[in-house]
Every structure is written in C-alpha cells, then in structure tokens.
C-alpha cells in the first residue's frame, strides 16, 4: 500500500473550508487562504500546512475523501452485503459525499493530468482503490491483490469521468450508478473467464504439479 500524505485535524479543517473556493480560484494558495480566514485560522499559515501547493492540497483532499468514505461504510446496513455490492456501495457513497465538490474534483483532475503530476495521480488512484477494497472486506494477500486493484482502478476512473459529465440530476447519481453497474458486470465476466481459463490450465498440468 502507498503511504498516505500527512494527516492532521488542521489540514482537514483547512481543506473543508477551502473547497467552496476552488471552483472560482482553483487549487491555489488564494483559495486556501480565503478558506482558512473564514474558518478562523491564520491565512499566513497556508504555506506551512501545504508546502507543496496545489499537488499537496489535492493529495490530502483525496486522502480525506478516502477516510470519509471508509467511515461512512462502517454501518450495519453494509455489513451483510457481498463483496461486489460493498464495492458498489463504496463508490456510490463517495460520489454522494462529493456531489457538492464536483467542480473542485474536476479542477483537481486537470491538475493531476499535467505531465509533472503523473506519479501523484497514480498514487491517489491506488490509495482510493485500495481503500474501496479494504472497505469491501477484501483481505487477499496473493497475486489477486494486484489484479483486483488494477481492474477496479479502470472501473473507478471511468465512473468518475462519467460522473463529471453532469448527466445526473442534482438529487442523485442514478445515471452514473447505472454506468458503474455495467462496468462492474463487465469486470465480473472477465473474472469468470479468467477463473475458467485457470481451471482449464490446471487440468492440463501433470497430477504432481496440480497440488504444488
């Protein structure tokens, strides 16, 4: 797992206060200072809280969204769901939680798309996908750990991009969730084909190697 960015109550509070300003000022020190001033913090501390500027702020925001999503899935209504249903519930909850910040997320993706931020974009996606699988109860430690996360990264990224198109109403994300269901169903078919292929290859192996 990729280590998360620095975490503190002060950074979380500053980010939450800054988000309403991002659609107008972008992920800038201006937006951060204005948010901190409204929150009662000293705007002069902006550089101390996020010395890495926009990249630092976006990484911390993604991490905060991961934690909020995980906390929201800690209720009894999610406990009885199967793994795929929990994955869907995690993504659906994340979209719901971030519906007020759609434009801030759009601007964050524009920053992450810059050539110098490729590694940061990959790290943020990897942490989010891992948080989703952890929330879904996945405890795999074998090679499937990597394949599951690689597949979900594609599903999650495509779903967020669809969500940003604004097809949904202001009240729900039904169009995006229908898109997500189609992508998850496609991944399920790929998984079934992979398992059948592995079983077929296993039958071709000599008996001594099947149990190795």
Summarize the structure.
With 212 residues, this protein is mainly α. The chain has helices at 9-18, 22-25, 29-39, 46-49, 53-72, 76-79, 83-97, 102-112, 118-135, 144-164, 174-204, 207-210.
Distance between the termini: 29 Å
Order of helices and strands: HHHHHHHHHHHH
State Rg: 20 Å
Sheet bearing the most strands, described?
none
Which spans of ≥5 residues are poorly predicted at pLDDT below 50? none
- The outline comes out as globular
Q: Mean pLDDT, as a whole number?
A: 88
Number of domains: 1
- The proportion of residues forming helix, as a percent range, comes to over 70%
CATH class: Mainly Alpha
Q: Could you state the CATH homologous superfamily?
A: Tetracycline Repressor, domain 2
Could you explain how this protein is built, in words?
This protein is mostly helical and about 210 residues long. The protein has one domain: Tetracycline Repressor, domain 2, CATH 1.10.357.10. The protein contains 12 helices and no strands. The radius of gyration is 20 Å and the shape is globular. It starts with 8 loop residues before the first helix and ends with a helix.
Keywords, please?
12 helices, Tetracycline Repressor, domain 2
Helices and strands, with pairings:
Elements: H1 9-18, H2 22-25, H3 29-39, H4 46-49, H5 53-72, H6 76-79, H7 83-97, H8 102-112, H9 118-135, H10 144-164, H11 174-204, H12 207-210
């Amino acid at each position: 797992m990729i280590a998360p960015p620095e975490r503190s109550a002060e950074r979380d509070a500053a980010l939450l206060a800054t988000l309403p300003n991002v659609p107008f000022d972008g992920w800038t020190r201006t937006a951060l200072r204005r948010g901190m001033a409204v929150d009662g913090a000293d705007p002069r501390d902006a550089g101390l809280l996020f010395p890495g500027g926009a990249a630092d702020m976006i990484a911390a925001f993604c991490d905060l969204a991961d934690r909020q999503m995980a906390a929201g899935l800690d209720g009894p209504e999610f406990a009885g769901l199967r793994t795929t249903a929990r994955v869907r519930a995690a993504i659906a909850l994340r979209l719901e939680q971030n519906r007020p910040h759609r434009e801030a997320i759009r601007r964050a993706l524009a920053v992450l798309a810059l050539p110098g931020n490729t590694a940061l974009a990959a790290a943020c996606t990897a942490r989010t996908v891992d948080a989703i699988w952890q929330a879904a109860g996945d405890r795999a430690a074998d090679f499937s750990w990597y394949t599951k996360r690689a597949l979900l990264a594609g599903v999650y990224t495509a779903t967020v991009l669809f969500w940003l198109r604004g097809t949904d109403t202001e009240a729900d994300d039904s169009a995006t969730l229908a898109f997500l269901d189609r992508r998850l169903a496609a991944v399920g078919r790929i998984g079934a084909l992979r398992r059948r292929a592995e079983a077929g290859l296993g039958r071709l192996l000599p008996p001594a190697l099947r149990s190795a």
